[in-house]
Amino acid sequence: MTHNLPAPLDVKLMNLTSNLLLVAFVLLALGAAAGWAMAHPLFAIRGVTVTGDVNHNNALTLRANVAPQLRGTFLTIDLVAARHAFEAMPWVRQAVVRREFPNRLKVILQEHQAVGYWGTESDSTLVNSFGEVFEANVDEVEQDELPRLDGPQGQSAQALAMYRALQPLFEKVDLSIEELDLTGRGSWRAKLDTGAQIELGRGTEEEVVARTQRFLGTMTQVTSRYGRTVTSLESADLRHQEGYAIRLRGVSTVLPEAQKAQKNQ
């Protein structure tokens, strides 16, 4: 009868050491192979394919501004850094950068769609369709007669939402909002294409819209009493709880007796 005797301790240590050395050798070999592959000219970036929105950025512009910022090979390039480089270009809102084996990059661009100006007339900032503020050359804006929105920092999306809610109401009476401001106190003010100034007051979007609907629903009737049209509107104040106050071009609300008294003073 035979018995398997346990291996001596020194034999176990030798086997463990040899196994560790083998693993270390394999890891070193893999590391060297990976380093060789990463640095091999075969994997150098040979080209970049750009698709998506390219209305404001052509291939020459992208090559001149972004290509010098791309570092590494197909295997080592930092895709996040590459994405940031493309998104730093004017008009680019979002970029998706992917590898295309063996040595190319594919970039899908989404450009800002300008729907309005933001801030004062001296500012060169725009608002996109998501209500985000971005900087670009305003001379490159393709749409005509974009509205100008303004308000506290971080309120551009709210201002755009309010404009989109109010503009269709004014269009029904052949008017258009040229400017819409949100004051620091939370009150809305609009300027129409006729030059009329409208104090819309405070409140939620639903409250301001309801107040505006009541005003526009009766404005035609009110202006017609004085032989005027809605284009004669000079200003309106909707902040009154039970109604509104308006001023029409060429119409005086001062009684004749009061006018004579003012002249004699």
Structure description:
This protein is an alpha/beta fold and 265 residues long. The protein folds into 2 domains: 70 residues, membrane protein fhac (Ubiquitin-like (UB roll), Roll), CATH 3.10.20; 135 residues, Cell division protein FtsQ/DivIB (Rossmann fold), CATH 3.40.50.11690. 35% of the residues lie in helices and 24% in strands. It contains 6 helices and 12 strands. The protein has a 9-stranded mixed sheet with strand order 6-5-4-7-8-9-10-11-12, with helices on one face. A hairpin with a 5-residue loop joins strand 8 and strand 9. Helix 4 packs parallel to helix 5. It is elongated and about 110 Å long. 18% of the residues are buried. About 3% of the residues have low confidence.
Write the layout of secondary structure elements.
Layout: H1 9-39, E1 47-52, H2 59-65, H3 79-87, E2 92-100, E3 104-111, E4 114-118, E5 125-128, E6 133-135, E7 148-150, H4 156-171, E8 177-182, E9 188-192, E10 197-201, H5 205-225, E11 233-237, E12 245-248, H6 256-264
Parallel strand pairs: 1-3, 4-7, 7-8, 10-11
Antiparallel strand pairs: 2-3, 4-5, 5-6, 8-9, 9-10, 11-12
